[in-house]
Structure formats: C-alpha cells, structure tokens
Amino acid sequence: MTERLSLLLHATDGISRAGVAAALGQREEIRFVSVEQARPDAVAMVVTDRTDARSSQVLRELRYRGFTKLVLVASEFEDAELLTAVEIGVCGVLRRAEATPEALLRLVMAAASGDSTLPPELLGKLIQRVSRLHRPGSGRGGAMTGMTPRETEVLRMVADGLDTREISERLNYSQRTVKSILHDIISRFQLRNRPHAVAFALREGLI
To answer: Model-level pTM greater than 0.90?
Structure first.
C-alpha cells in the first residue's frame, strides 16, 4: 500500500475545519496529523474566509516551523494578500466554492509531489498585481538575473497556467526536463515555488 500523505489542517473556524475533515477524512491517501506529529514534508493547509493579515500570519508561522508545502483555501482573495501568500511560500490555492473532496485531494497531492496549483484567474490577478509594482526602465532584466531564454520561456508558460505536461508537449521536452528547469530557477534565485518564480520574473521585467 502507498504511504499516506500527511496533512496538517489549520482552519480559522470550526465549521471550515469540520468540512475539510469530513471531505478528506475517509480518503485512504490522506492522514491528518498535528503540529507535533507532522514532519517537514507534510502538506499544511490553511482554510480561511478571506486572505488577510491573520491568514498571512498563520502561513508565516507554518513556514517558520519548517513547512514548505503550504496550500490555501479561501472564499475571497485580496490581490495584495495573494501576493504575500505566494511570497511566503504557498504553492497551491483553491476557492472554497470549488473545494469539493476531489479538488481538495488534488490540491494536497499536487503540493506533496512538488507541483503548484493556482487557478488561472488568480494567477492573472497575481500577474496584474506584480505588474503594477514593477517599475519600467529599472534596468533589471535577463542579463542581470542570469536567466536563460529557455528558462524565461518555461516561466511564461507557467504564467499562462500550463502544467508540466502541457509545457513539455509544447516545447517537446520531457516532463523531467521541465521540472529540472523550474527546479534550477527556484534553487538559483532562492525562490519558494513556481508561483513565486513567476512573481520574481515579473518583478524583473522578464515576462
């Protein structure tokens, strides 16, 4: 039997916690763990009504404790707080209205495998937010950051909402190659994950 994925659940209210627990509690792929039981490779899920300073603080505390696979489920996403969540290290986002048991499971499994899940409309909001923060003519670009054209092209596709398989098909690369390119970018620039890499590239004026 495949080892079950550890899930640390933090909800801002009891009803939300009970709802997620009911949705995933019977799934054989998942086991809920406490902060004391959880290892750093556990997925940490924060469920909240809206992204705000409180939810950002919870995410920061989880990151400080060593959790790197952070996912966020919320009803509303403020642009600034969404960007903050990505910069803290959130790799997966889901709207509560779309949080079916299957969608929640996909969110957790993607985070556990090192992939990112960001709905296209939220990725668009993130791009718009960072674009507004970016100052044209700052003199920062590919030459300064040391990012290759191939890396920039892959990031553009991530920004367009494509997953690893779709990128590999469009560029005629193996999925392993695409993952390696993204891993190199994330490691070299000390980024959190794919959404953070997109935000970084936007700040640098690369995409």
So the answer is: no
